[in-house]
Design a protein that fits this description.
The protein is built from 18 helices and six strands. The chain is an alpha/beta fold. Strands 3-2-1-4-5-6 form a six-stranded parallel β-sheet.
Amino acid sequence: MTAAVVIKYAIELVAVLLLALGIKGLSKVRSARAANQIAAVALALAVLGVLINFLSTSGIDSSAWLWIIGGTVVGGLLGAITSQRVPMTAMPETVALFNGCGGMSSLLVALGVALDPLAGSDGEGTGALVAGISIVVSVFVGAITFSGSVVAMGKLQGWLDTPAWMQSKLRHVINIGLAAVSLVAAIALIASGGDQGLWLLVIGSSLLGIGVTLSIGGADMPVVISLLNSYSGVAAAAAGFVVGSQMLIVADAMVGAAGLILTQVMCNAMNRSLVNVLFGGALGASASAADQGEYQGITSCSAEECALTLETAQRVVFVPGYGLAVAQAQHILREVAELLEAQGIDVAYAIHPVAGRMPGHMNVLLAEADVPYEQLIEMETINPEFPRTDVVIVLGANDVVNPQARNDSSSPLYGMPVLNVEEATTVFVVKRGLSAGYAGIKNSLFERPNTSMVFGDAKKVLSGLAQELRELGVGKAKVG
């Protein structure tokens, strides 16, 4: 074993350990930023390890160095610009796009090795069968991840809608056909030991990614994004076999496993199976006519009435939802919370696992407004506290606060864990209108006697609420 190979293995070992430490740190909001930086250092070391590997075996000519340096500069600039300009409300689309970039990277690596087998040599005589299978997995999963992520981004951005024919059983026939074509191409590629069937595999798997993702509703995107993140890990791990990088194999196996676990957690939070999300169509398809009927006994109020109730409260819980993100109202929400806190009122934020459009969307949104980490309370912890809560303010959330999930066995939501906000003394729901959530059914919370609707854009309503609280003298203790 040469000195260069030893250095390569040492670098990759350090990179794997740093990446594992970074992934662990991402489990806590407080340590997530530092953990992300540690993971970035780990990936930089991984790239260094791959370069050392090629330098110690076949070397890299001057033209290749131009591509490497140019790609690094362009990619780094795009990443820096994106991180500065993309608003927090657009994070779901950005994460979907980044997942797609990961899939495309693995796909390009596998294509390069398939078209130029010497490029994938690791100097250790990797078997042809293992190499062929690795290329197939990297191409197949990478292409699905890329095309599926682009579709997911388009649906989240509002650029794409699900065509009517994609909601019928015809989509299953098409997707099965594409899967069969991809399987035939994969077998041909492995059997030939060259590039036979390669482009058919790329086309078939890319179309399969589009076909599967296009039929999934926008409300299921948290699960889809989590799954695509897992796919990008699997594709990159396979690319690790292709280029002989232990770092890619170990690290992205962890990413793939973590993504699958998160996907299962998200499915449990929605009381749905992954098969149902991917192939079952819209959840609202099972909603009855009664579920979609007119509301009865709705009570509405103004920001002034809401402020009068808050003035006498001892404990207030905010429930953020996608409507808060759309209105970009996280900063004014923080301002309202500070006024209440200055009055001695206990404030907390109830976080449902699937609130928003990606895993952790609400946590990230509120972190941007410098909401204290300890005030972000998960569903399992906050639910027992609602009976002792004076006021709950629901901001743009819908199905995640629907009591039918617990008490109506005929509801499509039945069994889905939700926030028990109706157990609070008073509930205010800030919403533009009475439109249904992704389940396509009424929310019985709106008809509860202790619930009042505050209709309007979340940012405008909260701005009015802050003004009313100031006029009532709430928060003056802070300045005094």
